[in-house]
Design goal:
Length: 97
Amino acid sequence: PEPQHVEELIKFGRELEKLPDWGLLAHCEAGISRSTAAAITMLTSAGYKPQIAFGLVRRIRPDMLPNRRILRMADECLKTGGVLEHMAEVHREKAFR
């Protein structure tokens, strides 16, 4: 993923925020890394607090290992102070224990 891809995810998430009712389906080959990071990014840009976005995705996909590169770029674009990447690291540490 490149910065422009993350910017597109954020733009899409901001469009979702304008809708009265919506759902979200994101997938990739394995469904644990890129798609979960993309979903977290879109939910956060749609107005969900990062912790809520992360929790929603984790509830649906508990074995997720969100792509750290995507989340790092999302943190920069969304100015979340690194919280998305940090949450992914904490989740990853717990997953591998």
